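Working notes for the structural subgroup meeting. M.R. asked for a predicted model of this chain before we commit to crystallization trials. I am recording the input and output together here so anyone reviewing the notebook later can reproduce the run.

Input as submitted:
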Amino acid sequence: MEQMLAARLHVPSRTLRIEEVAKPAPGPGQVLVKVEAAGVCLSDVHLIDGTLTPLLLPGDTVTLGHEVSGTVAETGPGVTRWTPGQRVVLYAGEVRDGVTYTRGVDYDGGWAEYALSSEDSLVELPDAIPFDQGAIIPDAVSTPWGAITVTGAVRPAEAVGVWGAGGLGVHAVQLLRAVGACPIVVVDPNPTARERALARGADLALDPADPRLGERIGAATGGAGLAAAFDFAGVPAVRAQALSVLAPQGRLVLVGLTDQPLTVADGTRFSYLQQRILGHYGSDMPVALPQLLSLLQGGRLDFSGSISGELPLERAAEAVRRLEDKTGDPIRIVLRP
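Returned structure, recorded in token form:
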């Protein structure tokens, strides 16, 4: 049986190992993809450190990686829409019997030489888009895109706040710029992240510890406050701060994942102002990925600056450490099998 390398997480012990495993064979309706690039996400870090736990994983070990691009290697019986050699991006998950399974969490992902996908859970990657940029779209880009265009329903000229300008938040700034949000206010404690956000199109970048934060946001929005605020950090203090500067009928969209309770300090004020809090997870892949690839191909977006480094698959643990320790303030590190 042919073998391949894969970065496998033993969930009970939270141990990540590079192992030789059997190269999968595509079954009916499946496509085997030779992985060219796989993104390393903060969610992967949280799976390893125990903050996140797979809910639907049948065993106790999983190949990580939900941001994956590559080329079709083989197709299973009955597959007619894909042929070997096609460049593709894999969805970050798939719906099975009405339940969303996340790649690299609930089933084997792309931190491997090859990855399996159902035939309707991948999209063609145009030749003009490099594999590394293609790989990060299914989460680092499409998650904020879904949060902005669907859950948050941001309209042109709306004042918007982004808390956390890391791997998802920095892309949110670019995407908000693309949909015409104005002004775009970023809040992040890291000076490098704030500078980066301004370079990507933010109008104002503030430190959450700034005692005049509310005043500055008021000045930037003509006293109205933010029509929409996005929490990409998943931190209770962020949510409280965002609510404090939200406009009447404003919405707070929760993108960053946390197991901490959600608190509304002044429920009467919240109800009087008819504000809303909306949970967000992932994106509608069949809609989001073609939209984003079209914008990227058409020159409306450019994520070349988002690739902070590339490492071979064997150094997956090092990539995780770099992201965890924020070594060099990375946006996305990509593994190359």
